[in-house]
Design goal:
The protein is α/β, with parallel strands linked by helices. The chain folds into 2 domains: 215 residues, Rossmann fold, CATH 3.40.50; 147 residues, Rossmann fold (3-Layer(aba) Sandwich). It has a 6-stranded parallel sheet. Strand 11, helix 13 and strand 12 form a beta-alpha-beta unit. Helix 3 packs across helix 11, helix 9 packs across helix 10 and helix 9 runs parallel beside helix 14. The longest helix is centred in the last third of the chain and has 30 residues.
Length: 424
């Protein structure tokens, strides 16, 4: 039996133990995503035979990360909003370029976009020739000969994680020297990049918020009308990948504290929904059941982008560990509270002027702090949503100015009417 088959059997056996009721929905979501992937790939192949497109390196339509599915769709929709008619040739970020690809891009593309997401992450030599997630050699990158745009990317190292190799630093240095625009998704990443690459002019690193934080301005997805919840609905997401880097001790300690906080919230009169962005996120279900809490669950892995956005548009407050379990609901105008197991959550909240919406998972009395802050947000939702609107407007204004710069680099003009609308 091959390792791939064994892995598949193990995955479904695990699901049978933790969330057996999801099997039917899992198959249905996987089918819809597979069909979307096929249509996406077909369109990309058609675009490859045309001229004037943008080559887009990303992690397109990955099945087991809901945030990435929304993110890479959002990048393209954002560009299409400002440059109507632009088309994308979508390329796999982690795969080596095929023979003839770079010559084709050089001949036919307007430019190349890499991002968004936490792409600046150490990768072993056997998985990436660059030492980070973009799997392209310096020689191959130099052959692009079109404007290179890094868009909404972040330094995604975990606390205490090993540093980048010298080869990775050299590749990042070459990438930044070649790039016409370097848009970092938070100012914390700008600081990290400036420290990592001291020979690059720090002014070249530009703050470009993740496009998921301003989704409602451009997404094109028809969000369901806001449900007037008689009972506030609180969504909870726990991230369990790389647990040894995320948690100060056993992951079970933090999950138990979150479940206790959820019990307090339920007893205070709110509805609870456990949200998964990835398969392993469902480990929280076990701890919720131990607390005897009445809750629903929503699995977003393998969902299409519009379904993820529609769901978050109906949640009053999302308590989350994953960056996109916070940025997506924020982009839909909804309240958030981060339980930080990674610096990027704090970076995002500092950028929007609300570090008070963040609780570090390493803090003592975690359950009590989650409950108190959550209740404060729920009890003041109109004011909180007003603050979110103001913060999102600021991020949109920053994005608009950056798109003007990118348009100049790509020799593309933005319709002045779009700029007028953006200021309103």
């Amino acid at each position: 039996m091959s390792s791939k088959i064994r892995s598949g059997i193990s995955k479904y056996w695990r699901k049978l133990k933790i969330d057996p009721l999801d099997l039917g929905s899992h198959v249905h979501r996987s089918w819809l995503l597979w069909k979307a992937q096929k249509a996406f790939d077909k369109h990309s192949m058609e675009v490859a035979n045309r001229t004037g497109y943008l080559a887009h390196w990303g992690v397109h339509f990955t099945g087991d990360n809901a945030g990435d599915v929304v993110l890479y769709d959002a990048v393209q929709r954002l560009f299409m909003h400002f440059f109507p008619g632009i088309e994308f040739r979508s390329l796999a970020l982690r795969k080596s370029p095929k023979a003839g690809l770079l010559d084709s891009i050089k001949q036919n593309a307007l430019g190349a976009v890499v991002g968004g997401g936490g792409l600046i992450f150490p990768v072993s030599d056997d998985k990436s020739v660059s030492g980070w997630q973009w799997n392209i050699s310096k020689t191959e990158m130099n052959r692009l000969s079109v404007p290179l745009i890094l868009f909404g990317v972040g330094v995604n190292t975990f606390r205490g994680q090993s540093e980048f190799s010298d080869a990775a630093k050299e590749h990042l240095q070459a990438t930044c020297e070649q790039a016409a625009f370097i848009g970092m998704r938070n100012r914390g990443s700008i600081s990290k990049m400036a420290s990592l690459l001291p020979d690059i002019d720090a002014n070249k690193f530009i703050f470009q918020p993740c496009p998921t934080t301003v989704l409602s301005y451009f997404s094109g997805h028809e969000l369901a009308p806001r449900r007037l919840n008689k009972v506030p609905v609180v969504g909870i997401n726990a991230a369990l990948d790389r647990a040894e880097l995320r948690f100060p001790g056993p992951a079970s300690d933090t999950l138990n504290e979150i479940a206790i906080a959820a019990k307090f919230l339920r007893e205070s009169g709110v509805e609870i929904c456990v949200i998964t962005h990835s398969e392993r996120d469902d480990e929280l279900l076990t701890y919720m059941r131990r607390q005897g809490i009445a809750f629903t669950r929503k699995r977003l892995e393998r969902c299409l982008p519009q379904h993820v956005c529609e769901f978050y548009g109906q949640i009053d407050l999302t308590i989350g560990m994953r960056g996109h379990s916070q940025m997506i609901p924020f982009g839909c105008g909804k309240a958030i509270l981060s339980v930080a197991t990674h610096d990027k959550l704090g970076f995002f909240l500092e950028d929007i002027g609300h570090p008070d919406w963040c609780i570090d998972a390493r803090e003592s009395d975690l359950a009590a702090k989650i409950f108190k802050t959550s209740r404060d947000l729920i009890d003041n939702l109109p004011d909180v949503e007003g603050e979110i609107h103001a913060a999102r407007q600021n991020l949109w204004n920053i994005t608009t100015q950056n798109m003007i710069k990118i348009g100049s680099a790509l020799n593309l003009e933005i319709d002045p009417k779009l700029l007028q609308v953006s200021r309103n």
